[in-house]
Structure formats: C-alpha cells, structure tokens
Amino acid sequence: MSSASSASSTSNSTTNSQSSSTSSVSSSSSSQVQATSSTNQQTSSSAQSSSSTQPAVGTVTTRPQGAWVTTFEHNLYNGYKVTPKYYKYYGNGLWEVWVNEINTNDYPYVTVNQYTGNFHG
Q1: Alpha helix locations (H) across the chain?
Q2: pLDDT for position 1
Q3: Helix, coil or strand: residue 88
Q4: Cα distance between residue 53 and residue 75, in whole Å
Q5: Model's pTM, two decimal places?
C-alpha cells in the first residue's frame, strides 16, 4: 500500500508542477500580448500624427498651406492668365485646381505637384 500512496503522491506533485508551469506560460504570453498591443497603439498614433501633415484625400480648400502655393499661382497666372477658384487634394502631393475664368464643370483645369511645383492640364 505504501507503494500505491507513493505513486499517488508522485502523480499529484507532477500534476501540480505542470499546472504551475502552464500558469507561468500563460502569464508570460499575456505579458507579450500586452506589450504587443501597446506597441501597436504607439505605431498607430505615430502614423496618425504623420498623416496629419497632409490633408485627407478629397479635401477641398480655397487655398492650401505652403510656400509652393504662391509660386504656383504666380506661374499659372503668368502662363495662362487664370486664377485658382479652389483646390482638391488628390493624394501623394497632387492637387487638382479649378479656375475662375474657365468653367470646366467636374474636371480640374490643372493638376499641380506640391513637391515640385510642376503642373499640367
């Protein structure tokens, strides 16, 4: 009988050690999940802050911000004798521009690249 109780005691201690190692594994994986989620939150907040320098695609404005706007408007007037009515952000630094002097309905008169100042229509 002593061998049976000894075997039972060994079995209980093995079960307890497995249980405690499983518990430590689950707590360490829980820590990793928390660390990963906080890293993802930091990444998404930094992505949001970097995207705030560019307007949302489709944003319509009477005059965008930046030094390129003055140069573009000057070149547009000197070349074509037209003035911008409004701008619509297309993405990747490209702006569609409608002008006061010519009715183009739904189509922009020119598209300008805010990084280079080059435009075409």
Answers
A1: 2-51, 67-80
A2: 55
A3: strand
A4: 25
A5: 0.56
